[in-house]
Amino acid sequence: MTNLTLADTRALPQVFALQRKIEHLSERGYAFGHQDTTSYGVGWRHNHDSYTSDVYKVVGDFPLVYGFDIGQIEHGREKNLDDVPFNTMCALIQKAHKEGGIITISWHADNPVSKGDSWETTIAVKHILKGGSYFEVYKEWLKKVADFVLQLKDENGMLIPIAFRPFHEMNGAWFWWGNPHCSPKEYKTLWLQTLQLLSVEFEVHNLLYVYAPNLVGTTGEYLLNYPGDHVVDMLGLDLYQHGTAKAFQKTLKTNVEVLRMVAETVKKPYALTEIGLDRVLEPLWWSTILDATIANTGIAWVLLWRNDSKNHFFVPYPDQLSASDFKIFSEKTHVLFLGDEKV
Ligand code: BMA
């Protein structure tokens, strides 16, 4: 399936290696991922003396995929939008990478025009495109992104390859880069411009580019904002359970099928780049709802969203009502955790 070229035509060898690693995952099953897994969890935050995760606390193993978000980097702030210091994030990325984990980064960027947050939907995309009145602001913001990812080096000084997932869920109305606030054409131009600035202007060559809409009904819908095979390396999709388990499973099945069909045509790996049921109130959610629907579908990974507090979390903490099922799920041979890479 391997594509011999990547979106960044000067991508480093380690980005190709990451691409191959991702492709091989689906031969064995799918990897388990979690957002901010080592940054904080329910009732704790990372500190220098401990390296842990709610996933680790429950199953005794770490995820294989590590999600981080660089929202607020655009202002040169010390902490991201969820209060994670960027220097901590950098150290946690280095550690996860060293242990064999895959790193993926999203960017909840503020609105460059209104300076509100990602969810502040004042029209912005058309103004940050080349020739627009906020192009320079955007370029400065992107420079900060570049500086951050160019800082992510391993102990030998080699840049760490990152699956970068900018401007996600663009087919939803909630972010300023969402379709009602920009046309598909403007979105595609923004994607190209972002890739161009990062790779050519700022010489960032450690990124694998992931395109990730929110749930769709058809391949046509999936491809509505797709900027092109030559500028996307991996297909993603975000999907949460908001209603019944039955409805979720039906939607999940359709969406994984859409992903698979598109991926077969464009020959790229695919993953569920955000997924979850907030507060996991279904005791058997892991085995009977999630895994039952996505096992053997060729996806590379599932990334569960963050564990912020008892009111907002997506993986169990010790004694949470789905914890024992999560443990059973984690022991399935086709569900890949970090420890499965070491055997
Ligand atoms: C959302 C919520 C927010 C958070 C944002 C970025 O889904 O979890 O609380 O700030 O993601 O991580």
What's the quick description here?
By secondary structure, the chain is an alpha/beta fold. It has helices at 13-28, 54-59, 86-98, 125-128, 135-149, 184-201, 219-223, 245-266, 285-294, 323-330, 339-342; strands at residues 30-35, 40-41, 44-45, 65-69, 102-106, 162-165, 207-211, 234-240, 270-276, 301-304, 335-336.
Write the layout of secondary structure elements.
Elements: H1 13-28, E1 30-35, E2 40-41, E3 44-45, H2 54-59, E4 65-69, H3 86-98, E5 102-106, H4 125-128, H5 135-149, E6 162-165, H6 184-201, E7 207-211, H7 219-223, E8 234-240, H8 245-266, E9 270-276, H9 285-294, E10 301-304, H10 323-330, E11 335-336, H11 339-342
Parallel strand pairs: 1-4, 1-10, 1-11, 4-5, 5-6, 6-7, 7-8, 8-9, 9-10
Antiparallel strand pairs: 2-3
